[in-house]
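User: I'm curious whether this sequence folds into something compact or stays loose and floppy. Could you predict its structure so I can see for myself?
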Amino acid sequence: MTDAVPANMKCIDIDRLQPGDIILTASKSPTGKLVRVASKGEVSHAMICVQHGSIIDSTSEGVQARNLQREFFSDDEQLIAFRLREALPPLEIQKVVDFARSEIGTRYSKIEAARSVAPIGKPRGRRQFCSRLVARAYASVGILLVADQDYCTPEELRKSGLLQELDDITVPVSAEEVAAMSKRSNPLQLMREAQNEILAFVRSLDPEVENFTDVDRVVREHAEWDAAIADAYRTSGYLDLWGHELSAHPYRYDLALMEEAAEPRLFADMRAYCVGTIREYYSGGLRFSVNLAHYEASQQESPRETVGLLIELYQTLVRDHERRVETARQWLAKHFPEDIDQHLERIVPHTPLWFSIVDRVEPRLGAIARMSISSEQSFEVCSSCGDPANDYRIANAAEAMPGVPSLRLCDDCLVIRRGFGEILEAMD
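Assistant: Here's the prediction. I'll summarize afterward.
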C-alpha cells in the first residue's frame, strides 16, 4: 500500500468481495520482504473484509479498520483474495466479523509475529498481528484455517485447504484517481487517531487494556475513573466524527440533495453507490444498534457518564444510517426500481439470522416470538400473538426498534403497532 502517486497503480474491486473474505498481499517494503523470506512464502500481510469496501487488519498501528477505496497498490504487487470453500451461514460470518471488530485498538506484537516462524517458546498473548487476527476470527466460530491460530503466517493462510482463491479482484487506477483521493479527508484516519488517544489514556490507568471491550470493563469496574474517561472521549473528537461524513456527503442523507447531485454524467456512479448501500440495508449498520442496546443495558445496571455519552453517539449513528440507506432506496425506487427488487437486503422474520439479530438488539421480542412459535407449532405466525401473519419491514426502525429488520404480524397487531407510530411496509 502506498500514498504516493506512481504510474501503473491498482486497487481491489470491492464489489468482488464479501464479508469474511481474506486478502493477502506481498508488499515490496523491507518489512514485507523480510516476512516472505522468514516464512518462505509468497505473501507478507493478511486482512479480513468486514463490510462492503471495508477491511480490518493488524499493523504496527494496531488493529484498525480501513477503507479499501483508499488503498492503492503498485501494479506489480501481488494481491490475492480467498473465501471459504464451504460457505458459512450469514450469522456465522457475522460472528467472524464481530470478532475482528472487537479487536480494533488491540496493540501489535512484533515479537509474537516473529515467533510464528521461530522454534522458540510461544506464549498465548492478547496482542495481535495480521495473520493471527484473521485466524483467530475464524477460530472463534470453530473454523481452524491453520494448525495454530495463535502463531501462523500469511503464507500458511494462503495454503489453507479450507480456502479457495478468487479471480480478478483488482482494477487499474489512474494517477489522477489516486491524486484526487489523496486530497479528500480521511475519516477512518481521524477515527484511528481518536481511538488511539482514548486507548492511550485508559492504558495510563490500566496497562492491561488492549481494546474498547477492555475500556468498557474499566468504566464499569472503576467509577472513580469515569469522569476522566468521559473527558478523554470528548477531547479526542471521537464523539463528533460522524459529522465529518455528513458534511462531506450531505446528498447521501437527503433525497432532494441526491437528485441535485446526480447529474446525467454521474448517474451510473450514483446508481452503483445506491445499490451497494441497499445490499447492506440492515447489516451495514447493525453494529450501531448492537452497541446501542449494549450500552443502554449497561447504563441500567451501572450508570456512568461515559456510557451516557456513548448512548447518545450510537443513537445518532443508528439514525444517520437509516437516513442514508433510506435515501439510497428512495432514489433507486424513483429511477431504477428493478434494482430494489434485485439488491435490497431482506431479512425474513423468524429465520435463524433474524433471531441472531433480534436477540442482540431487542431480546424481549425474540423471547415473545419464540413463545408464539412454540405455542402454535409454526414459524408462520405473528411475532407478537401467534395468529396468522404477513411480513413487514420497519421503515423507521431507528426510532421504533433500533436494529430490528422486520416483523411477522397479524392484521390486529399491525394496526396496533402502526398506531404507536411504527412505519410498517409489506415485504415482497
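Summary: DSSP finds 19 helices and twelve strands in the chain. The radius of gyration is 23 Å.
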